[in-house]
Amino acid sequence: MGTPSTSPSPQRPRGRPPKMAAPGAVATALRLLDEEGLDALTMRRLATALDVQVGTLYRHFATKQDLLAAMAEEMLAGCAGPLPEGTTWQEQVTELAGRLRAALLRHRDGARVYAGTHAVGPNTLSYTDTLVGVLRAAGLPTQAATRTAFAIVHFTLGHTLEEQAAAELIDSGLPAALDALHAALDRRRYPNLSDAAATITSTDFAAQFAHGLNLLINGLAVR
């Protein structure tokens, strides 16, 4: 029998737990969002990815809703950048709404993350301030411009929610869903929808978004 080793066994280093920076946590959360989706993004899952204790996360984000607000704020980075020179207010509104849609589409479940958050960071506030400013410059009073800006944001958010949900369906079972829809469109009961079947089942989301946004803008122009 050999002589027992007297060398000390490995021990975990003592001292303070690893530090965590909030911006790094948000970046990791967005990466996990893209890889696994919102339903799989938990505070515990994020803590594991960061190699920190869950309690460390809660020192920066009191609730998961606070984390989602920070993620929404990060998603809007650059959305309030300078607008193209020599453009009309209609073109500027279209540009800003398009930027928001693109920002949400850039991340899996991006619209679900953004919905219901109330971020007060510079990205969010600058974007909203820019949109309200364009509408005020077009002649709307401050209150009407602000409410109109909310209407545009809500339309963009709602459309993108549906767009991303449809994208998930395309990956999982769109043919079956389309077959069920076509089967339900009985011409005798739903003649108008039956005639519009091609439009209803279209996946040209950019065209649908442009049509809805133009309705809002044209209504403003008449007003």
UniProtKB/TrEMBL annotation:
One Pfam family here:
TetR_N
Statement: the UniProt record of this protein carries the keyword Ribosomal protein: no
SUPFAM superfamilies recorded for this chain?
A: Homeodomain-like, Tetracyclin repressor-like, C-terminal domain
Domain of life, per UniProt, equals Bacteria
Q: Which keywords are on file for this protein?
A: DNA-binding, Repressor, Transcription, Transcription regulation
> Molecular function (GO) terms listed?
DNA-binding transcription factor activity; transcription cis-regulatory region binding
TM region positions = none
- Per its UniProt record, what PROSITE patterns does this chain match? HTH_TETR_1, HTH_TETR_2
List, for all copies, the residue spans of the domain called HTH tetR-type: 19-79
DNA-binding region in chain numbering: 42-61
Region annotation (Disordered) maps to: 1-22
Q: Which biological process, per GO, is one annotated for this protein?
A: response to antibiotic
What is the protein name given in its UniProt record?
TetR/AcrR family tetracycline transcriptional repressor
Source organism per UniProt: Thermocatellispora tengchongensis
